[in-house]
Amino acid sequence: MLLSLDKIRKVYRPGSLSVEALKEISLNIDKGDFSTIMGSSGSGKSTLMNILGCLDTPTSGTYLLKGKNVSGFSKNRLADVRNRMIGFVFQNFHLLPRTSARENVELPLLYSDEKLSWKEMHKRAQEALEIVGLADRFDHTPNELSGGQQQRVAIARALVSKPSLLLADEPTGNLDSKTSLEIMNIFQQLNNEGLTILMVSHEPDIARFSKRITILRDGRIVSDRSNEQRNAATALENWKDETELLEHS
Ligand SMILES: Nc1ncnc2c1ncn2[C@@H]1O[C@H](COP(=O)(O)OP(=O)(O)O)[C@@H](O)[C@H]1O
Ligand SMILES: [Mg+2]
Predict the structure, then answer these.
(1) Alpha-carbon torsion 163, 222, 51, 24, what sign?
(2) Strand order in the sheet with 196-200
(3) How far, in Å, is the centroid of ligand 2 from the Cα of 54?
(4) What's the confidence (pLDDT) of residue 186?
(5) Within 10 A of 164 (CB to CB), how many other CB atoms are there?
(6) What pTM was computed for the model?
(7) Ligand 1 lined by 201 (C-beta under 6 Å)
(8) Protein residue whose Cα sits closest to atom 2 of ligand 1
(9) What is the architecture of the domain spanning 3-248?
(10) Closest residue (by CA) to atom 18 of ligand 1?
(11) Which ligand is nearest to the CA of 40?
């Protein structure tokens, strides 16, 4: 098992005006899982992702990550776990403007305790950009890239530290449907190579590319089931067919 949550609660502003965002969440994720967390706005998805990503700590409950109880870790130790084990992808890409794709991807390596040379950092960043199909865009800045390309740079940045877990909060929320399929195709390829992926989405069309769908409602898990995974590469092929049909009609 890669990670395990046991009775995780998160209360914001404990006291009279408190919000209980997570109510005794228990969840196990195995290595190689590809899970989508769904739920309406305010159901606790981002709160759960922040705890899973060691960006925030639970009010109570236990979070075991690779067998380590990280729920009681200090901010510094959490940051260390985060840098070594977790890659993040966000809806709004969060890239540095006026900074090349390669430099954006290198950034996490500057903070890593791997102590790589500049040459090694360049190599790692280039490899990560090649994985997401951006070998020809190393020197482009975000404003010279499409939304889909920017998200691919963000995925490369998440991969460059070779994480055990990829967390993606609404990764296709700002992308058109075809570009979303391309992102799901990259996720499926990475997952097939063994990367564990946890993604938040409110779009059923996106969730069906994952292996498992967990539904949150009002801070509780109300459904958690395996999903017959749809193949994104096939969906992309079919997409091409559809546009050709339009062109020839
Ligand atoms: N920093 C915060 N302080 C107080 N309440 C918060 C905070 N973050 C989230 N909440 C509340 O916690 C609940 C869950 O929020 P969130 O995890 O962002 O849901 P989702 O991502 O599913 O939309 C909501 O009621 C929200 O208003
Ligand atoms: Mg959210």
Answers:
(1) negative
(2) 86-90, 165-169, 196-200, 34-38, 212-217, 220-226
(3) 16
(4) 97
(5) 16
(6) 0.94
(7) no
(8) 12
(9) 3-Layer(aba) Sandwich (3.40)
(10) 46
(11) 1
For the residues 163-188, what does the mean pLDDT come to?
A: 96
Confidence of residue 16 (pLDDT cuts 50, 70, 90): confident
Q: What is the Cα–Cα distance from 221 to 213, expressed in whole angstroms?
A: 11
- Closest to 175 in 3D by CA, of 189, 167, 186: 186
Asked whether 135 lines ligand 1 (CB < 6 A), one says: no
> Which residues, 6+ apart, have CB-to-CB distance to 133 below 8 Å?
152, 186
Atom of ligand 1 nearest to the CA of 50: 17
From ligand 1's centre to the CA of 42, what distance in Å?
6
Q: What are phi and psi of 25, to 5 degrees?
A: -85, 125
Which pLDDT score, from 0 to 100, does residue 249 have?
A: 65
Separation between Cα atoms, residue 77 and residue 72, nearest integer Å? 10
Question: What is the per-residue pLDDT across 25-78, written as a single tens digit (0 to 9) for each?
Answer: 999 999 999 999 999 999 999 999 999 999 999 999 999 999 999 998 999 999
Closest by alpha carbon to 165, among 71, 65, 77, 67? 65
State both tokens at 97.
């403007």
Nearest-atom number in ligand 1 for the CA of 216 is: 22
pLDDT, one tens digit per residue, over 67-112 is 999 998 999 999 999 999 999 999 999 999 999 999 999 999 998 8
* Atom of ligand 1 at shortest range from CA of 169: 21
The SS3 call for residue 37 is: strand
Would you state the structure tokens that stand for residue 114, as one six-digit string?
Answer: 């791997």
- Kindly state the tokens that stand for 170: 């609404």
